[in-house]
Amino acid sequence: MPDPQTPREQAGPPGPEGMRAAVAEYVAALHRAYLAQADTFPPAIRGRMPLLATGRPVRVAAVGVRNLHLLATREDLGPLRGQEVELAGELPGLSWTLRFYDPVVVPALGLVDESAAPAYEEVKHALGLTTVVYHVVAQPGSGLTPHHAGHVGSGLASGHSAAARDFETIRSRVRGRERLVDELVGAASAGLPRAQALLARAIAPRDEAVAALADSPDPDPDDVRKALLASVGGRRDWTPRPPAEAAETSETPAS
Asked: Which domain of life does this protein belong to (predicted)?
């Protein structure tokens, strides 16, 4: 009788080369969706989106622990060492390198405990990274498909463009503190939540919601941005105060 198993079932789980190819396809699909979504935004908004802002290649680390982590960064990962493998990828407007890590390549990853949930900070720390453009977790199998990657990429682009628009709105309403907003944008692009919260408090020192987030040990960057935006009037229906009134109540800009 013929073997009832399909050829795919007979082949079993993909080997290292097959898994690397699947991850590379996932990353390419994620970036393709990001670019497609970015093309719907005005040029200046695209230019401020973290994945596209510098025009230089981004470095993506694929980290296999219990979960598969994908971290994009502008930091240098150094030359290839030992069993490290790197692949290059490119689309119109974006190029990247993809490097693979596991506990054999980086022994510190063997100490990461993901029995309860993905260990985002521990994985980032094991690689020695301090800043990321994005950090997503993909599940091998049904979660590691171009279709799923497309949803992730579109979501990242929408979030990044919303942040760019919010920061532009905030900057237009805090005369004398534009430099602080520019630093805040840099901290957001680098993935530094505590720095974002502290800069937000420097921009709006009298806002209670912003102050509470600045005092939090783990502030959510989206909450920080939204609280700061609310403190300057929100996205719509905001009218600048008359110059005389603004001069009387404005805070002295940080030097």
From this structure: Bacteria
